[in-house]
Amino acid sequence: MCLGVPGKVLKVDGLEATVDFFGVRRVLRLDVVDEPVAPGDYVLNHVGFAIRRIPPSEVEETLALFEAVLRYAGAGDLLAADVRGEVAAGRDPSDADP
Amino acid sequence: MPTPDTQARELKFRDPVRARQLAEALAREVSAVGRAPVQVMHVCGSHEQAIARFGLRAAFPRDLQVIMGPGCPVCITDMPEVDEAVALALEGKRVATYGDMLRVPGTSRSLADAQAQGGRVEVVYSVTQAVEIAARSPEDEVVFFATGFETTAVATAAALAAGVPANFSVLSAHKYIPPAMEIVAEMPETRVEGFLAAGHAAAITGSAVFDAFVARHEIPVVIAGFEPLDILAALVKLVELVKDGKADVVNMYPRVVTREGNKPAQAILWKVFRPVGGRWRGIAHIPNGNLRLSDDYAHLDARRRFRIDLSRLWDQAPPALSARCICGDIMAGLKQPSDCLIFGTDCRPETPVGACMVSSEGSCRIWHTYGGMPDLREVRQ
Which of A65, B94, B163, B315 has its CA 20 to 30 A from that of B250? Predict the structure, then answer.
């Protein structure tokens, strides 16, 4: 639960954003993000909340670890499971608004 | 299939030349300290995951000890806190919590045991999902058993500040890491010469949160990311500071951490929570280490809304094996999982005795998963 996972903002709707995480779309809350975000930005997600807008120059480096972890994860890989858990923390955009 | 640009990133980050350079620099710095062993501590389960998963300890010089401190929020959740959640579940409240909490032992039972006895316990990945359960079921009292460090507490705070249904409350076991570093730094038997601070917690608090700590204890703090090369580079810097006797705060993860941190998140955190002293399981009483709801949010505090009766949990003795668990000593940096007589034998991920074997961020679970013998496949490929 120390982890935060980066994703790309596709759409912003008030205090919510639809974000792509390695091909999975989730809706995140923007209540505590450090700067305003717009489509195309990358944000760090922790338990369903964007906690940081990642500076554009830093996006590639930030993504690399997560892509590598997900690609090479064996069954029971704890780091990969935590990454997937973070992604699952966002709301599924196909669910109706609560 | 990896696209060409992700392949390029892979190469950059699995760059064996860079990894070797950093490993050599680390060895140079450690031997330049002139005494052995040099002992540094990290305080983040995700750091331990990355160190173990990528086999980094094999790239560390023999005279460098990188030990894990109290970086597993699930592990340091105290038994009475688990007992409160178990009691609420057994009294018919719906308890929602993060998955790792399910099997963490309380005095006599875990939340999974409460579930087996008919208690309603639900795993969520986000506080938002717990709020949704309450919104869908207005007839139920839904208690969110909230665990995690300040990064996670910010999410709980934001959810409460945004407004929650009347049948929703929070049982907070959130923890605040900087005061725990103070206590561990003062433990005479731990002898920590420098700290690696967790990148994502520092994203909230900012690197400046460590200034006073560094001044008081004269111990350097380096903020590190989670990529193997990030960790190696941060260790080189940390040992260099140890060697030079410089008690500085150095931010080696500037792509995520700033000096002042995330101001809106800090504002909401300290509006909803206040720090109070409390025990961290197996370690010590940590002044200001626990986050409890502030007076403005007292009406959402499960401890005030319900009379929580723990006496019913004392009808069973704790499992006999739990007396042999050394999870507390491991989290205080005094012992390693391999020092434990029941590690991997009586205590396994399927049958965990202590919290360190339950959580994905617990040292025992991590060492058990990735093996005691580090491998270098991904570093020296």
Answer: A65
Token pair of A17, please? 């954003």
Helix (H) / strand (E) element for B77: namely none
At B50, phi and psi to the nearest 5? -65, -40
pLDDT tens, residue by residue, B108-150: 899 999 999 999 999 999 999 999 999 999 999 999 999 999 9
Is residue B127 within 8 Å of B156, Cβ to Cβ?
yes
Q: pTM for this structure?
A: 0.91
Task: State the pLDDT at residue B2.
Answer: 40
CB-based contact, B306 to chain A, within 8 Å: no
Paired tokens of B48 = 């331990």
What is the rounded CA–CA span in Å between residue B310 and residue B80? Answer: 8
A85 contacts on B by Cβ (under 8 Å): 99, 125
Any chain B CB within 8 A of the CB of A73?
A: no
Give the C-alpha separation, B224 to B219, whole Å.
16
Among all chains, which residue has been given the structure tokens 């196909």? A94
Q: Is B189 in the A-facing interface, judged by CB distances under 8 Å?
A: no
For residues A17 and B203, give the distance between their C-alpha atoms in angstroms, rounded to a whole number.
20
- On the question of pLDDT at B193 being above 50, the answer is yes
Side-chain half-sphere exposure of B135, counting CA atoms within 13 A:
11
Cis amide bond preceding B37, omega within 30? yes
Contact B114, B82 (CB under 8 A): no
- Please judge whether B53 and A60 are an interchain contact, meaning their C-beta atoms are less than 8 angstroms apart: no
For B360-376, how does the pLDDT look when each residue is reduced to its tens digit (9 = 90+)? 999 999 999 887 544 44
Distance CA B130, CA B122 (A): 8
Which CATH code is given to the segment(s) B11-72+178-251?
Answer: 3.40.50.11750
Domain at B74-175+292-315, CATH homologous superfamily? HypD, alpha/beta domain 2 (3.40.50.11740)
Topology match between the domains B11-72+178-251 and B74-175+292-315: yes
